[in-house]
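Table 4 source record.
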Amino acid sequence: MKYLATLIAAAGLMFAQHPANAKSHPFKGKVTEVSKDKVTVAHGNIEGFMGAMTMGYKVDKPDVLTKVKAGDEIEATVYTDDFTLYDVKVVPAKGKAK
């Protein structure tokens, strides 16, 4: 049983890591929708990776999906050839403390 718990924990860490040797890019955008397995974000140009668009992304930590909501401005890190958002943080609205 202890072996199984260790195996499950290791698998979780494996999936939460970004691809080896991938270039990181700062990510900023506005959440338009949150579902059970992804967050849809309208974002600006990500220099060296992709143009501005609205797109669904997986997140590295599933609990993020319970903390963000449509309308939130977020910052994160995204890696080349990986459509997962890492270290997602809600940015306080300008003029309002959160």
